[in-house]
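Cross-check.
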Amino acid sequence: MKQKSVEQIIVGAALTLAASALLPIVKTTIRPIAISGIQGAKALTTQVKSTFQRTREELEDIVAEAKFERLKKQLDHEIASLEPKEGGSKLG
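Predicted model, tokenized:
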């Protein structure tokens, strides 16, 4: 039992020393990777926002064109219903 706890203390001390020696190396290695990742995420966010903006504008254009066509057809229909029909009685 004492043998196991002594081994655990030795392993723990070795890991602590190894971690303290590796930490500066890992820190200098991971920092540029993290910075690149953050910059990539920002660029991706910007692209997604602009894509959504363009899509929204396209949809607004489609809706506006559909409304215009509907209004145009309605006005054409109203104008056609106001015009005298052929073969009807003519005054004058």
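The chain has one helix and no strands. Residues 69 and 75 are 10 Å apart (CA to CA). Passed to J.P. for a second look.
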